[in-house]
Amino acid sequence: MPGLVVFNRRWGIASDDFVFPGLFELFIRILWWIGTMILFTYHKGNFDCNGSAVLRTYLVGLLVVLGLIILSLCAIVYVSAQGKFFSVHLYCIQIVLKGTITNPGPRRSIPALVYLRALLYIPELVWASLGALWVSGDSRGCNPATVGAVISAVVASWIILLITGLGVVFVFDPLGDSRHQPPAMEPLGVQDMESNRASQFFSTARSLAVKVWESRLRLLCCCLPQDESQRAAFSSIAQLFSKFFSDTDLVPSDIAAGLALLHQDQDKMERSRDPETIVEHSPSSPIEEDLEVELEKAAHYMQFAAAAYGWPLYIYSNLFTGPCKLCGDCCKSSGADYDIIGGDHLGCHFNSILQTTGLQYRDFVYVSFHNQIYEIPFFVALDHKREAVLVAVRGTLSLKDVLTDLSAECENLPVEGVPGACYAHKGISQAAGYIYKKLVNDGILNQALSIVPEYKLVITGHSLGAGTASVLAILLRTSFPTLQCYAFSPPGGLLSKALADYSKDFVVSVVLGKDLVPRLSIPNMEDLKRRILKIVSNCNKPKYRILIQGLWYELFGGDPNDLPTEMDNRREEVLSQPLLGEESLIIRHSSSYQSLGSDDSPAHTAVHLPLFLPGRVLYITEDGPSRRPCFSKPRYRADWSDEMAFRSILISPRMLVDHMPDCVLRALNTLISNRPFSLCPSSFSDNQHNVI
């Protein structure tokens, strides 16, 4: 940070990203050089075979080329990792800084070293070709071991050249052309004259970024059929991504380092809080009674939300017995039995639903596995145990579902009788509209309720299915006033505040631990980006040390207080001031520094509407230390929370694991089996999430 500028363009790699790849290649090259030297010394420069002169020339030249490459790699690794100190005078205060993530000054010689290393690929290519010619033509009569060693050297050369080419493709930035870089800073007297030029530049750059992201999406989804809905989704997602990444000069390793630092910083703040005071409730208190009833219902309906995923989740949850059960059921199922099922050719999806829910075939009114962008699978069944007509919506399981998830712009969702602005997640809103038309226009709900008119309507789902179920419940609320919705791990960027408040009468959201998805929204992602920029700017450690310590912390834990993340001896007011001096020019000209120091730059014009979790939030956390032995059984506690407690993304190894439907189901079943439930005060939930 900022991205390295070489060959007249910016690349997706920074000057401090050469430590690990440089050390790895250096290790290979040193072993290679030692092996070549042993071979040459063993024969004492005399090779008794055809083409010995060519072989001698090849080995001598290879030793020289490898030696030069080793020296260049040593220089690159040293400069990329160095922490040279320098001074900056600011308001009569002398600040001593060193080469850190946001200060590439001490690494200013990296571009020259990269040019030198690139030049050394030319003699390496020539010598690899020379070795290949010798092996193919003049190696007759030579020692087989010698021939094998030369072949290994030639193959190694071509493999390294291939890996280097793939690396160049990987770090290539389509927007890195120097013609697309922002205009240089001008003196104050001419800044007004340059404002139009800057605005025009950002408009052109953003248009180009949208085209680049559309091309990436088309390449990623090349296997999907091209239609109008897909092109509209690509355009919407490209607009979103181009806006999000337009105002930063972060490279992927910067983000990894920032996430590692944030995790340690959040753990440090969490451990420094005072122990929570547990408020005891009598067994007959309304709070505990309500929580117990809802937990029992949630554990029951979560089975249906998990069943909607079909055979993939069933096999994942039953690795040893699942394949045998499904294989037998799928093979003996006749096609005539599955007239109501679409998109399930062998019936494996439906049989896994039968196995998971324990229902009979006659209990299903409608089952669809049709899957397109904004059109997701669902089923309608009769739940006789709870006397409910149950609609279960599947979560994300395909690339088409991912595109629906990523269509995260706001879309108006007017609801009669709801004051305030009513809008929702675009992709999920359209998916709910698709299911609404199926249920109402095709008469599916009327058919189900005609069989059991006394049953109530319940809608459930997990992840994308939870968000769709919540919006669907809002759409059906006026026609079915008694309906209930249980949304498990719903996306955080789902409903406007007015709709979120409206849904609290009939929607219960269940969130487990540090699950990422319920905290995932565009404003939360913008907040995460700002926190990453701030923490990497204030960190006094080189990136390679941050990554090593962060990996160790994630794998083995430790004390976050042993991993300092803030600049030593720097006052907060100093951090808010721009640096002066030659070393700060690179940062000042980067858009990352702009985003840190100015909120009114052209890159900050986009404002995203806030979106919230639906309904009441039932929050489940592990009771005990944050880290436990791998094979120990977790203990959980549950409490009511609210949507405002999920306005910040928590970094944790469990941020993805806690989202898995089998983990949510296991936590609910554990709470049900371990009565009485562990309760904690509402302030616990607030403090748990307000870690910034």
From TrEMBL:
CDD domains the record matches: Lipase_3
Reactions performed catalytically: 1,2,3-(4Z,7Z,10Z,13Z,16Z,19Z-docosahexaenoyl)-glycerol + H2O = 1,2-di-(4Z,7Z,10Z,13Z,16Z,19Z-docosahexaenoyl)-glycerol + (4Z,7Z,10Z,13Z,16Z,19Z)-docosahexaenoate + H(+); a 1,2-diacyl-sn-glycerol + H2O = a 2-acylglycerol + a fatty acid + H(+); a triacylglycerol + H2O = a diacylglycerol + a fatty acid + H(+); 1,2,3-tri-(5Z,8Z,11Z,14Z-eicosatetraenoyl)-glycerol + H2O = 1,2-di-(5Z,8Z,11Z,14Z-eicosatetraenoyl)-glycerol + (5Z,8Z,11Z,14Z)-eicosatetraenoate + H(+)
Residues covered by the Fungal lipase-type domain: 391-522
Keyword Signal carried by entry: no
Annotated compartments: Cell membrane
Family per similarity comment: Belongs to the AB hydrolase superfamily. Lipase family.
Protein name per Swiss-Prot or TrEMBL: Diacylglycerol lipase-beta
